[in-house]
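BUG-547 | component: ligand-complex export | severity: low

The export step for zinc ion jobs runs without errors, but we want the raw record kept on the ticket for reference. Input record follows.
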Amino acid sequence: MAYGPARALPGDQIAITTNPDTEPFWDAAKAHRLTACQCADCGHFRMPPSPYCPQCQSRNKGWPTLPGTGTVFSYAICNKNPKTGEDYVYVPVVVDLDGAPGARLNANVSGCEAEDVHIGMKVTVDWTAITDGWVLPNFRKV
Amino acid sequence: MVWKNQDTCAIVGVGATDYYRRGQSWPRTINDMAGEAILNACADAGIDVKQIDGFAYYSTAGAGYLDKFDTASLMETLGIPHVGFSATLTSGGGGCPGAIGLATAGLMNEDCTYTVTLMALQQLPQHRLGVVFGASAPNPENSFLQPSGLVGPGHLMSVLARRHMHLYGTQPEAFREVVQATRANTHNRPKAVRRNSLSNEEYNGSPMLADPLRRLDFCLETDGAVAVITTTMDRARDCRHKPAVVHGVTHGGQREWGRAFAWMGMPDPHFASSGHQYVADRLWEQTGLSAGDMDVALIYDHFSCMVLMQLEDYGFCAKGEGSDYVLSGKLRYDATTRGGTHGGVPVNTHGGNLNEAYIIGMTHIVEGVEQVRGTAINQVKDAEFALVTGGPASLPVSGMVLRRD
Ligand SMILES: [Zn+2]
């Protein structure tokens, strides 16, 4: 099926909320720095950030700077803007993050036709300004 | 190891309202419909509503998606004099048959004698599930999911289906066959919402809502209520119908599945699965049975792809072979022989959530009961064992084997 160019959803429609466990991720995103929550004791990555490391139960967190690249793990192709119902082609992707084994982000991908998105496709982070001054990591085909 | 409470309890009454298309049950209220389902279930069991003294819910006692059941309110309006057990499984529709296990726990603990399990659903415009996920600013956890535009459960499920297609070569025609095979079971069911046979053309013309899933891969949106009554085996034999014996029932799941498509962190092979592996293994261990011993399978079908993945998780076929299994016609019910076809076990002889009605899994329990009673509309000949499963979603999910008495 031919869908045409994949676009990220408009940032002015997107809101997020944070809590003390997740806020460092979003603070880094504001500075266009992609990170993931890492256990400061055993090094295990987890996303979304949560209070405890599931491997060793430590509460100590680290927020390393990741390369900002990743691989599409799976995706869907959608064709309606969820807020307005208007025709709008976007591709939600689940991305395995380079440098953070086991950590994934759910985002939109752009830079290619929707029907060309595929599992295993390499992507790089693409920052989208959203409401309340936050910044969302989306992805673009490498 | 055999379950200590095997065959100690049974479902003795089933009751339902009419099934309405989404939003069309108004001006009835949720408790009006819940009450009718309970009273009908009592009549079916041959007991008085005043004998009800237990409530075992699932979906966190959710009535639909935003309302909650409240035992006290139901006692107040139905005149139930006292209750010794009122509890719920957590999360959502995945716990549906698991709630019968919860009822069994109350009964075996002698907290209660006749226990109601219930679901009522009414989607007024402001209550629609598809937009519940996307309506408000997401919470901190969901802020890692919702901005991607995965706003409804069908969108989320399509991502899992895509991975399954990638890993195993699963064909989109297999999703179609799930819908067609189960649609073929509703033509003779007066209460079913969709009764026409489904052609390839009609399916292929159905809008692609979240590629690879079409609108017809999504279940119905129904208003209505269903209640069932569980009691101990000694009491069950005094009821009106033959008991549907609770032979095994499990709920729960493993961390690799966890919040599932509200998370998307599942490692392979759990990602492209129904998340039922753990409860399925326990169910077969509890009963000493396996998929091939089932005479009929009532598989929770909120989305066609999840039927295929549950068939794998319960062992009707090997992991990754769901597409071939489905496409070989093994889900079909043959009215002539009153059995399966191509060596399969008939699936959703009532039409399921996709075709008959969607009351968050309760219709599957009703069909399981009717099959082992021998009174189902699409009766499987000499049905002894019926498998009933609860919706793949955030844990707990659940499964149950009902046995003919
Ligand atoms: Zn750790």
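Assignee comment: Attached the raw record above. Strands of chain A lie at 37-39, 45-46, 61-62, 69-75, 77-80, 87-90, 92-97, 104-110, 122-129, 135-141.
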